Amino acid sequence: MKPRATVTTDPDRTSDGADAPAGGDGEDRDGSGTRTARSRAIGTRRSRTARSGPAGSGTSKNGRKGRPATGPQAGGITWRQRLRRDRTLVLMTLPAIGLLLLFNYVPLLGNIVAFQDYDVYDLGITGSPFVGFDNFTRIFQDYRFWEVLINTLVIFVTQLVLFFPIPIAIALLVNTIMSARVRAWVQAVVYLPHFFSWVLVVTVFQQMFGGAGLVAQWAREHGHEGFDLMTNPGFFKFLVSAQAVWKDAGWGVIVFLAALAAVNTDLYEAAAVDGAGRWRRMWHVTLPALRPVIALLLVLRVGSALNLDFEQILLQRDQVGAGASEILDTYIWWTGIKTGDFGYAAAAGIFKGLFSVAMVLGANKVAHMLGEQGVYSKK
Question: 296 partner at 20 to 30 Å CA-CA among 10, 23, 268, 340?
Answer without folding.
Answer: 268
